Amino acid sequence: MTQKDLPWIKSYPPEVSFDVDTRPFENLNDLFDYVVRRYADKTAYINMSGHISYENLAVEVEYFAAFLQKYCKLKKGDRLAIMMPNLIQYPIALFAALKAGLTVVNINPLYTPRELGTQLADCKADAIVVIANYAFNLQKVIGQTQIRHVIVTGVGDALGFFRGRLVNFMVRSVLKMVPKFIMPNSISFKKALRIGSQLTLDPVLNRYDDIAFLQYTGGTTGKPKGAELTHGNIIANISELLAYYGSVVDRGRETVVTALPLYHIFAMTVNCMLFFAIGATNILITDPRRIKDFIKELKHHPDISIFTGVNTLFNALLNHPDFEHVALGRLRLVIGGGAAVQSGVAQRFKARTGLNILEGYGLTECSPVCSVCPYTAKEYTGSIGLPLPGTYARIIDADDNEIWDLNTPGELEIKGPQVMKGYYHNEEDTKKVMHDGYVRTGDIAVWLEGGYIKIIDRLKDMILVSGFNVFPSEIEDVVSKFDKVLECAAIGVKSDKTGEAIKLFVVKRDPSVTAEEIKDYCRSYLTPYKIPHIVEFTNDLPKSAIGKVLRRRLRTEAK
After folding, report:
1. Domain carrying residue 255
2. What pTM did the predictor assign?
């Protein structure tokens, strides 16, 4: 297929071209140096009343990089694990690791000891920066790893002397949020910076194809897979996104809500890298699950102009009465990802803000962004938009034949400069996921008019009822619009009669709602074989770090 045959190009905004320079910088260090010089006096990150300018960020990155290189004696290619929520210490540690030529391994701080130990052993991390709140879990497994250096940081370490000490005291001694741990050879983050300030960093040459991140795709079940993402992969993805949205962002003047965890690939690339590249101010939300405190923080920032989130986050905000009092007059770009944004949530968000949630799509193996709805979209369509400039997409059937007919489902595959090198020391799984230069996504999709793509569901989540394919997302999208339902998730369970039956888990908005009411509601919008056979009420749904509902956990618990 030639470029002129690509069905989505004609739907791009007028100034957007498929061709894009995906190599404006040789490595992420060059990008970092360019940005901190250009926006030196601008605020880079805000967190809990603390803030750091681009200029001061560069200074602390240099200090920490020197510490890693000279004090810890880490060399190019060694791996630094970062295990913390959204704190100013995160970008300092991340950019410092890259400065020192290291490979960053992002770790979910909420991992159990088993999950943590498995990932640390697999990636062969040499050092780790860990939030004190979860150091007790690290203590349990560190003997199973090759970690030689542990840097421990407190929540308040970047908030200034007095504010920082107060926050750390409250977290540790009043709120009792730091379980006791013993790490004899550890060093504090603040001390590491002081040591680094007395050392000189030797320049390290990172190449375009050098690995910048080992980004794990899961690791909660089975063998974890670390996607090898190069400096070039991330730079290319940033370049593609800027080619798509560059004309509507105001460089050096945007204020971005960063509530999704930076250790997740979505926020790391889009918030920590892309919006960093345009000189934006990132408001780091440490714990967005504390929704009342989250909204309180939003009220302090009437200049918010960009918001990134996932369906569950938008839904939680909309269902809290205080969100009505958040000033959003400057908000002009809202991007959803991580999981499908349900139509009911999208409609309510537009009613509140006047803006469409521009849904995007990506996967860890693609750094992650593959497609996004254009800023010219006037209404919510349920699609994931158009493939980014420089990105190729195709949909294939079970026999690997390409599908170009509209509304005909098949597996979505992606090719582009953002595609990973492969899985770390896992050639077998790399071969399984790569197909003629394309990545098999595992997602069922269809083409819509104009080259737009709509994700139907995950291939492994599809439910087979009496020989009919049922997609959980369709059921969830319908039920989410029922005003008595707060959240829902559908799975397939074994059935002697139909092979599989649909089980729907529901979190109530109205305590009076019954299972029969929900089934009756479904009968108005769904064909009979799609009606849930079982409705089970629950207080909450299991979710990933970014708020994606974990259907696999529901399936496991239902057995």
Report:
1. 3-22+232-458
2. 0.89
